[in-house]
Amino acid sequence: MALRLFDSLTRETRELVPGSPDGVYRFYNCGPTVYAPAHIGNFRTFVVNDVLRRLLELQFGPDKVKHVRNLTDVDDRTITQARKEGRPLGEITAHWTKLFHADCDALNLLRPHVEPTATGHIVEQVEMIDQLVQRGHAYAAADGSVYFKIASFADYGALSRIRERELLVTDTAADSDHKNSVGDFALWKAWKPEEDGTVQWPGPKGAAPGRPGWHIECSAMSRKHLGKTIDLHTGGVDLLFPHHENEIAQSQCCTGVPFARHWYHSEHLLVNGTTMSKSKGNYFTVRDLLDKGHSPTAVRYALLAGHPRKQLNFTLDSLHAAEKAVATLRNFRAALLPSGGSPEAFASVFAALHDDLNTPAALGALFSIVNKGSAGLDLPSFDRVLFALGLRLDAPEAPKAEVPSYVNTLAERRWAAKQSRDFNAADALRAEIQAAGWQMLDRKDGYSLEPLKR
Which residues, in sequence order, are CB contacts of 306 under 8 Å at separation 6+? Predict the structure, then answer.
């Protein structure tokens, strides 16, 4: 069964086939910036990519798939966090990388075959920038930074349709960053001691010491580990412009060949019908949900409940429904024959997955089968479905943190003070709650208490 996927560049649903003679399918997806915990919106994209990776392995074989996912460990945010905490950059990024991996393992994400870091590929990035300057696609600015000249790439905007949306910047304007045009983007940022501290490397020829811009890392790492042209590039829709648009421009101007044969983007995650925000009390990390007592398998299930190319509204109610669905699957599995079932019994599930990663249709097809009972079905066939979806039915549930009684008392007093509009008292009580290691998240109809992240 052919695996077909929507292509963000051509706006068509196309079959995924390896483009190299060795038959290995090569794909790259943008990983996290490791300065803070990734939230569940980030993990929706990573879970979708994981299902795609699993389907590719089932179709082509595990040894015929090469998956690269990067870690951005130097940029404005990582450096700012290091300065804020007064700790070395590498110490900060190592901490958050470890926690990211723990979340990935909890959600049963297959580790990428290669997980390159930006700081580990400075040489490759500098070499690529040098080539772009030599070919007239980039230039050194007065402050020693290097910028890509978008006017030199006629196809700029093809992925995002930026020209069709009339978002082109004036190509004759200049700004305070010494760029020739507002639309040009940084390939290399000159060192600024007041902002960068000790973070710097020798720059490209004619440039000052500094650090790479955000976009160049993915082009350099993809080229090193997957070659000049890759089969598939994926990521969240928020990366489509400018990040992926810039990747195409700098890669193709450097190599002279297409950067990626296929592009795929997953949509935003909403929580309670709106974008996530800590001030709204609807901002969740994986650890937040596990600390509430939800199983990681249920979290993964809930993130697969909507079509990846459509916005998904995540709620705690949907997570409770996912818990029940996982329990149903666990009970169903226990009743299956060890062997001898029909190999085509779950064909409808795979048909949905192969049709543009339609995960909600796949889950619907699975439960249509489950509701008919286990007669004639075997364990290996069912486990193949579970592998494709990445659902671990033996995953342990995370223990729920117990709120101390005195914290509950403080929370009741603060809620009453807030309702009576005694905001000074409410703020003071909130500070006491936080000092005790808890945070109080307000809703229209009440509040919840969660342990502060250490």
Answer: 312, 313, 359, 360
Q: What is the pLDDT of residues 386-421, one digit of tens each?
A: 999 999 998 655 455 678 888 889 999 999 999 899
Structure confidence by residue, pLDDT tens digits, 125-171:
999 999 999 999 999 999 999 999 999 999 999 999 986 444 444 33
Number of Cβ within a 10 Å radius of residue 107: 22
Q: Give the start-to-end residue ranges of the domains of the chain.
A: 4-266, 289-389, 405-451
Question: Helix 316-334 vs helix 296-303: angle between axes, to the nearest 10 degrees?
Answer: 110
Tell me if the domain spanning 4-266 has CATH number 3.40.50.620.
yes
Does residue 189 contact residue 213 with C-beta atoms inside 8 Å?
yes
Dihedral pair phi/psi, residue 265, rounded to 5°: -130, 135
Paired with 166 in beta bridges are: none
- Give yes or no for a contact between 265 and 235, defined as CB atoms under 8 angstroms apart: yes
- Architecture of domain 289-389 in this structure: Up-down Bundle (1.20)
